[in-house]
Design a protein that fits this description.
The chain is an alpha+beta fold. It has helices at residues 2-31, 77-83; strands at residues 38-39, 50-58, 67-74, 88-93, 96-103, 113-121, 129-138, 147-148, 153-159, 161-166, 170-173, 178-181, 187-192, 197-206, 213-214.
Length: 225
């Protein structure tokens, strides 16, 4: 009888030990989860987690001193493309058709539903400027790398919640809200809440420099409370 009890106890301890080891490994994986980096044709295009570079090109024409990012929604991609200008991007993302335009303040939205007008932007002195437009889908707990840009970056949250962590401050954002990060400001996006975060973003930067520069993970940032 005693022998059976000892054997049962040993088996119980072994099971507990294995379960604890597995839980610790899972916790370690969660802690060391890699930041989501942006790329062309990322898994976001297929409804999976990712960050897609929709376009990366020169701004053309005579630029206004005060630039804005115009976000308009259309009933079809064809309608958005028809209304697009030289500094516009027509795209399908997050279940809608969008026209995303960099330009002066305007009241005419070419027949689309006006969603937001973000700006004005302060651009660094440069001979030429580039625009990079992003669409991203991040899962709860996911982050972007800590990074900077040579010009401003602006976010528009389509769905979910995100904290923008910066060296100086932090900002909590929900669906329908936007936020502008000044150029050369270290920052990271962190998904908060229990649902995926869907967003559109624009980076305006000096064409002589890369669009983005990743920083060391030890860079101190302010988190949302």
């Amino acid at each position: 009888m005693k022998r059976r009890i000892c054997i049962s106890l040993i088996l119980f301890l072994l099971v507990c030990s294995c379960a604890t080891t597995r839980d610790n490994k899972n916790a370690k994986v969660a802690i060391t989860r890699s930041p989501v980096k942006c790329m062309e044709n990322s898994p976001e295009r297929r409804g999976e987690e990712g960050c897609t570079i929709l376009t990366n090109r020169l701004l053309v024409g005579s630029l206004a001193k005060a630039l804005y990012w115009h976000i308009d929604r259309f009933n079809s991609l064809e309608a958005a493309m028809k209304a697009a200008g030289a500094n516009s991007v027509a795209t399908e993302a997050h279940g809608s058709f969008w026209l995303l335009t960099v330009g002066a303040k305007a009241g005419d939205h070419q027949g689309g539903e006006h969603i937001d007008e973000i700006g004005p932007f302060e651009l660094p002195p440069a001979d030429r400027y580039m625009m990079r437009v992003l669409s991203s889908l991040l899962m709860p707990g996911s982050t972007t790398p800590i990074h900077t840009h040579s010009g401003p970056e602006v976010f528009y949250i389509v769905g979910g919640e995100q904290c923008i962590e910066r060296s100086e401050s932090s900002q909590r954002l929900g669906a329908g809200q936007s936020y502008l990060v000044p150029g050369n400001s270290a920052h990271r996006g962190r998904v908060i809440g229990s649902t995926p975060r869907r967003a559109l973003a624009l980076i305006l930067y000096d064409a002589a420099y890369p669009a983005s520069r990743d920083l060391d993970n030890a860079t101190p940032l302010v988190s949302c409370k």
